[in-house]
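Q: I have two molecules that I believe assemble together. Could you output structure tokens for the complex as a whole instead of separate predictions?
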Amino acid sequence: MHELSLIQELLDMVKQSAIENGITRVDRVRLVVGESYGALPEALAFAFEVLAEGTVCHGAALDIVDSPLLFKCRECGTEFKPGEYSYRCPDCSASNAEPVGGRELYVDYYEGD
Amino acid sequence: MKVIVGKDLLTANANQAGENRARFNAGRVVAVNLISSPGSGKTTLLEKTAALLGADLKMGVIVGDLYTARDAERVAQAGLTAVQINTEGLCHLTANMVARALAEMPLAELDLLFIENVGNLVCPAAFDLGEHAKVAVLSVAEGIDKPAKYPGVFREAGAAVITKADLLPYTDFDLPACLHDLKEINGRLPVFVTSAKSGRGLKEWCGWLKALAGEVYGC
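A: Yes, here they are, computed for all two components at once.
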């Protein structure tokens, strides 16, 4: 699984930003994860705990915000959440919707001193 | 103190993918990222594609595997220019790994480059390699549940190839149900039902590749 490499990216990003902002201790990091990545929150939390050791994020809390899948029908413009097996538009039943939510994967913010 | 970041975690990969894409475009090479479970028949599909399409398009392959160069040796035997990447356990190719392989690939001599990803239906779908199209490969031996269980890769794909269709009479694989599931997930997905043994569907698959090359570069 790629949770470890995602968290390594996160730590590198926060570390760089902390240096730029003169922050020496991070208390909290908020991460937004789109449903489409299939990244497990437990695995992300575990990777964070292990990889943050000895970094500016050591001991910080990781808040993981899940961003659910959301589609927009290319035919009629309806926005909808997909069913378990179906990605058809519930209004016009077209099957060519584009994903407009659930593809996010970014550090929203962090807090520290 | 609160610091707003708002930066994508895959930024580094996305930037490298953009550089790869620029290199493909500069060399007028169409790049196709093949994604499937292990053992779906990607390498055999490439061997057959080489035989059918070799006279029309010059093709290369970047082969991603955890270990060994066995697949690269096979496709090189079939006449394709091959570079092997061993990910040493990583479950997907990254844009960086592809960039390193490109240094050994004579792009100027090629029309079409396959990137045979690590056998895995989850992680490879999340990492842009700079390709022009992803192709999802699914074998009859795997059963029909893969699209419904791993919709991400089938939603992102530009085409799907069902392999080992010669096994259809010996399995419970319900082809119409599988095609129906694929349609539910991605109504615009061209699907090729193929068999490397009988040759079924390979002409149509090769026709799609030629059309893709035509779309991207007008060749």
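A: One point stands out. Helices of chain A lie at 3-20, 41-51.
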